[in-house]
């Protein structure tokens, strides 16, 4: 990760879709920008099928959850922090009714040893055709 003025970018996480870094360090805290399931270097989103117009025709929330968690891990580790250092996670879902149970089950797998504070909210849309995004805060030495 490059470090200019405490701005950090991962070489493994998907490229930001706007003018923002993957993370920013302030003291011993690491603030992550919203992280989705996209993979670096491709427009294809794991677990998402789109029509020619770019509309979602189907999606797999489990695949998206696992991809998001991996992207968060990439950013944390590239910054010099780690999964076990997460202290606060805000989760944005576009379909709470259909996706919460699956997301909550997978979340429990990934966070069984470290239990950061968590807030889960439903929103009607994200900037890209995804069903989940995480906003995280971690500690960093």
From TrEMBL:
<dbReference type="InterPro" id="IPR035959">
    <property type="entry name" value="RutC-like_sf"/>
</dbReference>
<dbReference type="Pfam" id="PF01042">
    <property type="entry name" value="Ribonuc_L-PSP"/>
</dbReference>
<protein>
    <submittedName>
        <fullName>RidA family protein</fullName>
    </submittedName>
</protein>
<dbReference type="InterPro" id="IPR006175">
    <property type="entry name" value="YjgF/YER057c/UK114"/>
</dbReference>
């Amino acid at each position: 990760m490059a470090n200019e003025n405490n701005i950090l970018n991962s070489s493994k996480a998907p490229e930001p879709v706007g003018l923002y870094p993957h993370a920013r360090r302030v003291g011993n805290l690491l603030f992550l920008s919203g992280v989705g399931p996209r993979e670096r270097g491709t427009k294809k989103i794991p677990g998402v099928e789109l029509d020619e117009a770019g509309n979602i025709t189907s999606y797999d929330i489990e695949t998206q959850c696992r991809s998001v968690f991996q992207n968060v891990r990439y950013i944390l580790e590239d910054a010099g922090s780690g999964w076990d250092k997460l202290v606060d996670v805000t989760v944005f879902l576009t379909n709470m009714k259909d996706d919460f149970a699956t997301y909550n089950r997978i979340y429990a797998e990934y966070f069984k040893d470290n239990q950061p504070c968590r807030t889960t909210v439903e929103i009607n849309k994200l900037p890209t055709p995804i069903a989940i995004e995480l906003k995280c805060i971690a500690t960093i030495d």
